[in-house]
From TrEMBL:
GO terms for molecular function: acetate kinase activity. It is an enzyme of class 2 (transferase). It comes from Dechloromonas hankyongensis. Its EC number is 2.7.2.1. The record marks H182, R241 as: Transition state stabilizer. Its cofactor is Mg(2+); Mn(2+). The lineage of its organism: Bacteria, Pseudomonadati, Pseudomonadota, Betaproteobacteria, Rhodocyclales. Pathway: Metabolic intermediate biosynthesis; acetyl-CoA biosynthesis; acetyl-CoA from acetate: step 1/2. Keywords: ATP-binding, Cytoplasm, Kinase, Magnesium, Metal-binding, Nucleotide-binding, Transferase. It is found in: Cytoplasm. Mg(2+) binds at N9, E379. This is Acetate kinase. It comes from the Bacteria. Mg(2+). Can also accept Mn(2+). NCBIfam families: ackA.
Amino acid sequence: MKQAILTINAGSSSIKFALFPLAHPISPDAEVSGQIDGIGTNATKMVAKDRAGEKIANQAIAGEQVSHDVAFDALLKWFMATHSGWQIVAVGHRVVHGGERYSAPTVVDATVLDHLTSFIPLAPLHEPHNVAGIRALQALLPNVPQIACFDTAFHRSQPDVAQTFGLPRALSAEGIKRYGFHGLSYEFIARALPQHSHRAAGRVVVAHLGNGASMAAMVNRKCVATTLGFSTIDGLLMGTRCGNLDPGVVLHLMETKGLTVKDMTRMLYKESGLLGVSGISQDMRTLLASDKPEAEEAVNLFCYRIARELGSLVAASGGIDALVFTGGIGEHAAEVRRRVCLQSEWLGIRLDPEANARHDIVISAGNSSVDVLVIPTNEEWMMAHHAQTLLAL
Ligand SMILES: Nc1ncnc2c1ncn2[C@@H]1O[C@H](COP(=O)(O)OP(=O)(O)O)[C@@H](O)[C@H]1O
Ligand SMILES: CC(=O)OP(=O)(O)O
Ligand SMILES: [Mg+2]
């Protein structure tokens, strides 16, 4: 039987999966990849495509408010029925929070699983599903190693000053600090960058702009600062998350409107961001296509916040040699890149408008003092690579 590594990326409302045939090195193009979207809604759907990009599944998952468990079950049943010819030799799981304990990919045993379960309060929208995914795959493939690949790991290189909140020091000692997320994406970009820029080892800011969005500053391809913090709501405006917010607003709303922790959690994670500001959609495509002023306001705030955070990250890394856009929005929304770069001309950034419109890899103009690049991320490949390396496959 042909051997392969399966990767699972369980998010707050989606489960993504990919299958990578074992090879040296592993090809970045998965044999099959896909996702179940709309978990928790009445419109849950699974789509999958083969290596050539042809759709091989496009089906609704029946049920109301389909849970992650039901989605996992449907996915695994479909997968086993359609890919029985593959022997899965490892499963790589994206685990959003590694706490203070984990700074590298780790084989999951009972103790590790207990630790991951204890991190659930640190990332309530992601970690429960990451843990559930590991349990589901353990039950299905009991003799296959499960590898936890942490979103926080890449950011452990940040200096203490970048990780510390201005809170009483006993809290910092308890682990209340800035962790940072999207680490698998940043790690992939850090590996890919030397192929595209001779400044890869310099001061580089990467903007991972997806439904969740963050930015990270690297020096010599190691993280020195990032916009996401203790939780996955800090920093940039996101699809449904508010980003940087005066904590006084939370106190005020709880005090004056009697909102509970549950109410606040829903508002800050699910009802804010592009969706909350526009009142129209969390989807950047919809907002860019809309002529409503509220859509324009949301897009404008999204870009403004990126440009503001860029200035802050450049201060943290002492300058900038390259800026990289990645994630669904970073890779596809030329208009977002244009606005961010226009507001960042003070840094010596100059965009080549045609290259930007074509989504070229290098989109900076000849006279730009900063290399500006678009590099598609591949968190799935990064996990497969980690599993292969850790298990010496
Ligand atoms: N062609 C496009 N133009 C503008 N935005 C796009 C385009 N394709 C995808 N996006 C946006 O990318 C976002 C999703 O990014 P993605 O990285 O896939 O998210 P996730 O965090 O779920 O992995 C959505 O806001 C979507 O609208
Ligand atoms: C950490 C995070 O925000 O993840 P995602 O973008 O997958 O929601
Ligand atoms: Mg993502």
